[in-house]
Every structure is written in structure tokens, then in C-alpha cells.
Prior knowledge:
Layout (H helix, E strand, L loop, with lengths): L5 H10 L6 H7 L3 H13 L14 E2 L3 E2 L2 H7 L26 H14 L15 H14 L3 E5 L2 H13 L5 E4 L5 H8 L6 E4 L5 H4 L4 E7 L11 H8 L4 E4 L4 H4 L9 E4 L14 E5 L1 H14 L5 H12 L1 H20 L4 E5 L7 E6 L3 H7 L4 E2 L9 E3 L11 H6 L6 E5 L5 H12 L13 E3 L4
Parallel strand pairs: 4-5, 4-6, 6-7, 7-8, 10-15, 12-13
Antiparallel strand pairs: 1-2, 3-9, 8-9, 10-11, 11-14, 13-14
Amino acid sequence: MDLGSTDIHDGIRDGGRDGEFDGxxxxxRGGVRDGMRDVCDDLGDRTPDxxxxxxxxxxASSTGVRALDTEAVHAGRDDLARQGLHAAPIDLxxxxxxxxxxxxxxxxxxFATDGAEPDGPPVYGxxxxxxxxxxxxxxxxxxxxxxxxxxxxxMAALSAVLLVRNSLGLRHVVAVRPLYxxxxxxxxxxxxGSEVTWVDPAGIEDALRPDTGLVLVxxxxxxTLAELDLRAIAxxxxxxxxxxxxxxxTPVLQRPVEHGAxxxxxxxxxxxxxxxxxxxxxxxxxxEFAGRLRQIRFATGGVLHPLAGYLLLRGLSxxxxxxxxxxxxxxxxxxxxxxxPRVARVHYPxxxxxxxxxxxxxxxxxxxxxxxxxxxxxxxxxxxxLIQHPASISHRVxxxxxxxxxxxxxxxxxxxxxxxxxxDLWRDLDGALGTAGRAGHAGxxxxxxxxxx
Length: 453
């Protein structure tokens, strides 16, 4: 979706992380929802570029490359019909009998060597689970990677990545703010023995050291929705792995490996599950790194429950439909908020998506207290619309000065737009905004920022 002229986009790049540009608002007025659908339709037809670490991506044996929408429905399930099954089975076993203890020993030795999934029947729940493996296969295909490794939460997934690099003596991390608040805290507090250097994107290359094990970014960022040039960042990383948190965009809107990222992180609790009833995390990556992640998962026990794996696999089947419908709603709400005199500023990414951040002239806590249809709750990516105040909840754990310095103001609200009728959503938001901030701002709407660095 074109949010404005080339000059506006260049100005955003030159002006900082998430520039405030009144002209962008004019670029989205009229036809914004159709533009969003066009963009999402184009993205849905993209296929992986076939680079080395995408060998497992989006392929069918006889018909060639399959569209993302098809993979969302069929990946991880291709063997079911041959077994006389329609729905994926849920394997709740924690252990698996075997009369061949020598064979078991050999398979465990092999796993200890490279972390590859053991051949043959499962061994033990911490080594892997068939239901969870279906979800991992499906997510890897959607992201265009060789493999994916699922964990009990997004933070467990990020912790495992850090532990993999720490185990090699590569404890230094270069990161760009803002990140999810708990990711920021995990790095800043050094809870896993890591040391972090916070930089702007332009400073990544200069911040690299011999012991740098990871570069971590989020785009669009939580909660400001600032967008980064992943390809340029991947180039700046050189041989250091780039981890891109793709929770907000999902593979429907963006596949970071196509821009040079080696690792893709999801809080699968959000859009991948999509219904607010499962907690999980997952890292999509090449098989070599996946093997190390499996070894860490086995040792630390951050495994995903099989029922959660089943719910996530089911959630993926509707992911493209949900993301596109919610994105159309979000684009329309962003336009209306940008025109509203009670709103000081609106953040909505050029990439699109179902997340909006906006700053109000009045008291943001009063808006939270006044919603009736929209759910006032942390988290995001559910079928229902959620609103929260990042400075009070998701980013409370970040030092106030660091939080504000990365664009997370005390008046910022984060809106995760769901699948309700957009008129019902606007009616609720309009009522919650009330008359707060209207005085002294008559005739002025909130500038719509579409930041790219």
C-alpha cells in the first residue's frame, strides 16, 4: 500500500525511526482498504527464492512450488490422507516404548552430536513430539526455512537462541530498540550472561566485535511499528547471524530470510495461534542451527505441549485469511484515527498489518477504561481486538528513559485489530476517546507516521 510519495518515504528514512509526516495522511485517505487487499494478495503469491538454507521451503514433489495460502492449509498434513485421516492426530505421550535399547542408545548419541531429529519412532517428549513436529514443519515452509524449532513461549525461544550462541563463547549481542519489553529486559539485565550493545541501525556494523554472536531486531517493532531495512541490516551483520522477530508481520506479509536474516523468531502465542488460547514460541532457521536449538530445548526443558502444537497447526491454516481481514480493518482505523483531532499521532507501517499505535492528546488510561467492545488486555494477534498501554504493561520492565528514547511515549496506545466489523470497532474507539484532548486541537488530526530506517 502506498502511504505517500517517494519524497515522504525518503524523508522518513532520513528523518529517523518513525517520522511524523502530515502528508502521509493524505496518501492513505480514500481507497486504503482496497490498497491493503492488493498488497496482501500480492504477498500471498510470493514464493521463496530458493537459496541454500531454504531447501525445504514451500515445495510439493510433483506440482512444484505451492502458494503460501496452500501451504498454510496443507503443510505438516501432507501424509494424513494416505493414513485415512483428515485432522492431525494429537500425540500426548511423554515416553515411547522400545525393546531395542542398543538402538535407542545409538539414536541418543546421534542427537547429542548434531541435534538432528532422531530417525524412527519417538524416544522421549523432550527429544520431540510428532504433533509438535507437524507445526514445526508447517511454520518452516511458511517462512521459507529448512527447519523450525518450537518452544513453550516466545521468551523460551529467544533464550534458547542466546544460549546456543553463549555456548560458543559468543556472548555479545547487538540490538536495535524498540523490542518487546521482556526481550529488552532479558538482554539489558544480562540474565543469561549476555552483554548487549544498543544501536541505531546505521551503527550495527561498527558495534560488531569478535565475540558478537547475534544481531537482534524487530520489524515492524513492538510497539511503535517502526520498520527496518532488513536487507541492509543483514548486509551490515556480515557473518554474524541476524535474528528478526517477525511476530507482528507474520510470513503472510514478510519473510525475513528472503532479506538475509538467518533466524526468524515468533511469539506463536500471537498471530500463529490467533485465538488467544495457546502460549508458544518458535524459531525458523537452517537445519544446522535448528539442531543446536533442539539440544538446548532438550537440556533446559522448554518444550511445547502437544495440544499447543495441535492448536498452532490449526491456527496456521487460517493465518493468511485472518491477517488480511484484520489488516484491512487496521488500515481503515488508522486512517480514521489520523483524521481525529483527539489523536496526536498515529503509527502504521507501510508494510501494512493488523497493528496500530497511536498517541492521544488526553489521558490514555481513560481510553483504556472506556472501551466496551475492544478488550483491554496485553498480548495481540487474536481474532478479537485488544488495546493496551505499553508504558504500563508490555514495556513497563524497560527503563523509562530507554523506553521514551525509543519512541514509546507515555501517551502511546497499542491496538491489535481483530476481525470484528470495522464500524463497530470505530464506534467503540470513538466513544472511548470521548472529548479528551479535543479542546485546543480542533480541526487537527493525528499525523500518520510510516517509519522506515
